[in-house]
Amino acid sequence: MMTAALLVLLLSQTGDPEAPGEVQPAPTQDTAALAAPESPLPVMRQGEHAVCASLNPTPQVPSGQYRVQCDAMTRRCLAAPTHELDADGSESNRPLERVSSCHESPEYIHERVAEGYTFVPAIAETPPGWYRDERGRVMQFNFDLHRRVWLGGAWAPLWREGEERTLSRGRVDFGIVNEFPRGEKRLHRLTWLDTELILGQQSSLEATLLRYDNNVWQDSPLIRVTTFLGEPRRHDFTFDMGTWLEVLRLETIRRAGTEAVFYTFIAGHLTLDLWHSRELSSYVRVRAGPSVEYDRTHHFFMLVPGAAFEGDFTLDANGFHHLTFSAEAEKLFLGHEVDGRPPEPERLRVRAGYELILLAINDQPLSLVLDGRGQWRSDLVDVPPVWEWSVHTGLRFSLWAPARRSAPVATSR
After folding, report:
1. pTM above 0.90, yes or no
2. Max Cα distance, the chain (Å)
3. The domain boundary residue, chosen from 140, 174, 196
């Protein structure tokens, strides 16, 4: 009798599973628990598939929301929180930046749990040239100073032979530059609005609307030299020739109380690379060609052939050190005779510059700029043609400077 009473009581407390209108609980599945963190934390692989998943909540990540990347060979799944962590290590409401989108796949995670995969705390992936710390915050560590918008300022004292030093001078410069590779053998470079304004005594202004140049890597050598001292050896010499073009350049210069203004409508040079890096962004070259110039002060056109020896180097893989140098010569032909200057004036310019990235503000680099220059010219009326030297020291802010095309992927802390 006691057993029958208990059976009746149990049946009276159990509802009919097929009864209409009764809501059934959703089926459950096992969730993954994270293993103890490794030191240093592993980094998820850039460019590989990631799944958004709900794992077991923890005090640090109470939402349990992670990006998960699994490896069938090691039977491990790397799991990184989908949100940045605060300074105390707890989950914030800021989603991770610079990660690819992922989709929810509970079945995928359930299968990995059933197969015995280990879920390991990790740091989310980053694109090349970027780094992510243990809190998931991303920062750029690689910069391409050949692709940027820049704005700079510097102190620019001047020394002219036979005259007192001019210390009350400053420089403001601005420009936009970008590079466009076409395969591995050709690189196009465009510079817009390259502007430099010298303020104070002995002031000047130089501004170029557009400058274009390219670097070329020839596939086959033009000259092959074979030497027969000992074992025969072949030496290949290529002529990596390109072009250099300037459109609408303005120069205004004040010296000894007089002002001269020159417009260069167009200048075209052929270039020959004596050396270039594999990605063509660093080079040493010579270039030569003519330009058409207008002397606005005296109202006549001139033909100005010129030649230059120049170099541009990025000295490290992450783009923090940038070195440039140049030596230029120009001669002015077909102009009118002007009292106070030779009939065919000349210009000589030398320059060397070094730029070092000091820090980044919102991932935009701030650089220290050191620049030394020398100039000799005889095209200024009643101004003695002497060498003048200036040293520019200042800062330059790049408003846009992406990672270099050769930037590595950060794979470790």
Report:
1. no
2. 135
3. 140
